Amino acid sequence: MGYLEIVHSPPDGSLPALVLDAVLRQSLVAVRSLGRAGIAVHVAESAAGAPAFASRWCADRIVLPDLVTDPGAYVDRILELCSRLGHPVVIASHDGTIDALRSRRAEVEQVAELALAPEAAMSAAVDKRSTLAVAEQLGLHIPPGVTVSEPTDAAAAVDAIGVPVVIKPAVSWVDGRTAAWRAAPMLARERDQAIGQVSRLTGDGVAALLQRWLPGAREAVSTLYANGSMAAIFAQRAERMSPLLGGTSVLRESIPVPDDIGGMSVRLIRELSLEGYAEVEFRRDADGRPFLMEINPRLSASVEIAVRSGVDFPLLLYRWAASLPLGAPPGYRVGRRMRFLGGDIAWLKEALRDPAHPDAPPPKTAIGTFAAEFARFPGYDFWDARDPAPAAVVASHVARSLPPRIARALRHRLRDADLVGEAT
């Protein structure tokens, strides 16, 4: 599938860009967007072989020290790079990278333009407790829940919410007592399981947020807020997530901005003064009422659907950070679909392994809907006919991850849809 926007002319006097976290999907999207705009894009990651390193628009491939084991050396190397590159725009998309940069933000901003919201807004956005408190003051629906800080309070909290219960760390990047790690929400369906999960989080010094599970659609509103105005707004619906409960959006579709969550997102972003890019996530209940889940104040993994629909958020983010004009808010095409195939395979595996999960369809339905999506010809993350090498980097891993019985069923489905012949 093609892109709506034309290839841009390079901005006058444009700064180079340093895109970190080259292993992530959104980093590859940023490299391509900025490269098409004529910007010199330097790309960095803690390991070789990242997909974005293979992009035709990658001007330089830099392997950094390990973020988790030596964050100090990681940031030191970024500071050196920025000094050498001549005050680049730095785009980071991983929670751990952002946490490390924020810990030395003053140093980073002496040698680069950091494409992150101001510190006060970032602090409020990355802490789910602060975000939900502001949202509640604004009259947004938030899931019924409680926060637990001590293991001894786990049982009472679980009993107050009931099961199934969603358990989230208060912050996504956890610098725990034993190690630093990115924490994802968990679903507990049994009381003892829930108590154990809460106790493990709080025992590592992490506050746990317990919320009632909601059964409805997952929708998100992405924004680029700058100088008191919305420079861009976009909405999508996630049809499948991996893990099942929530995390990576592996199949999504562009939708018109809904009146309810669109207005809620704008009010929340304005109240927080959350400049730059942000994605505001909602989940609806059985009656269709939207409940705020969280805000991601960084380029989200699902951002490519916005770019392919006509809203080039990475380029807008770069222009905002570089203090360049943003132009009028762009429109976009609805009904575009994007698929992260590796994540969709992970979704299918989990759905078959745990059919009792409340977000899992019946096994036959899971296989059928997974296979049927090939016939709809969605866009695929990593794949771009003008820049095919990054897709080749990940293709062999995706192929190896298919269990044999799923591969056989998939081949039958594809033959039924006349998409492939007798197969390989």
Q: What are the SSEs and their pairings?
A:
Blueprint lengths: L16 E3 L5 H12 L4 E5 L12 E6 L7 H15 L3 E3 L3 H9 L1 H7 L1 E2 L4 H8 L1 H10 L7 E4 L5 H8 L3 E5 L3 E3 L4 E3 L3 E3 L2 H13 L4 E5 L5 E9 L2 E14 L5 E8 L3 H14 L3 E9 L5 E7 L7 H6 L3 H9 L15 E3 L1 H13 L9 H13 L3 E2 L8 H12 L3 H13 L8
Parallel strand pairs: 1-2, 1-4, 2-3, 4-5, 17-18
Antiparallel strand pairs: 6-11, 7-10, 7-11, 8-9, 12-13, 12-15, 13-14, 14-17, 15-16
Helix pairs in contact: 1-11, 5-6, 7-8, 12-13, 13-15
Mean pLDDT: 88
Overall number of strands: 18
Low-confidence stretches: 1-9, 410-424
**Class computed from helices, strands and strand pairing:** alpha/beta
Please compute the radius of gyration using only Cα atoms: 21 Å
Beta-strand content estimate = 15-25%
Please bin the fraction of helical residues.
Answer: 25-40%
Gross morphology is globular
Distance between the termini: 25 Å
Major pleated sheet: 7 strands, mixed
Q: Count up the helices.
A: 15
**Spatial strand order of the main sheet:** 16-15-12-13-14-17-18
